[in-house]
Amino acid sequence: MDLKAKAILLGNPTVGKTSLLSRYIDNIFPKQYNPTIGANFLVKGMRIESHPEIENLSVYWWDLGGQIDKIFLTEYYFVGANGAMIIFDITEKDSFKNLEFWINQIKRNSGDIPFIIVGNKIDKDEHREVKEDVAKKIKNLYNCHYIETSAKSNLNVDKAFELLIELIIKRYILNQS
Question: Candidates 3.10.410.10, 3.50.30.60, 2.60.120.290, 3.40.50.300; correct CATH number of 2-173?
Fold first, then answer.
């Protein structure tokens, strides 16, 4: 069977949403920052070895602009989402403080969809403002998964995307909560 899913990437500007997506889809790390205004999307088709009944899964990854004051530009893109990745920058405490805002946006616009929280830029650990144990507390608070990544070093990038894909498959395809 061929299936389609929609996933959204959320978080403050400059947390690395576009960089993570570029690394995952094309294995490229962008050299310069270009802010996302509104939304961009990329598609990745794949076979899931753990689910041979799925011949092809096409995931439409929507990279949403993170300007909180322009959230009205992106709310439309939440509709029909099957999962979300909320990203913060471990070197930027404010991006972590806004996780609750992004989680509330998901709940308000997409309902009870699976989501994961990603702490990005662990290649800059010496500048870390958000300790890993503090970030893990939010995971327990919202009953979700947490993973740390580096788009620049390509550390745990595939693992983060695969984790969300597995949650989407379990929820929507296998109908497991």
Answer: 3.40.50.300
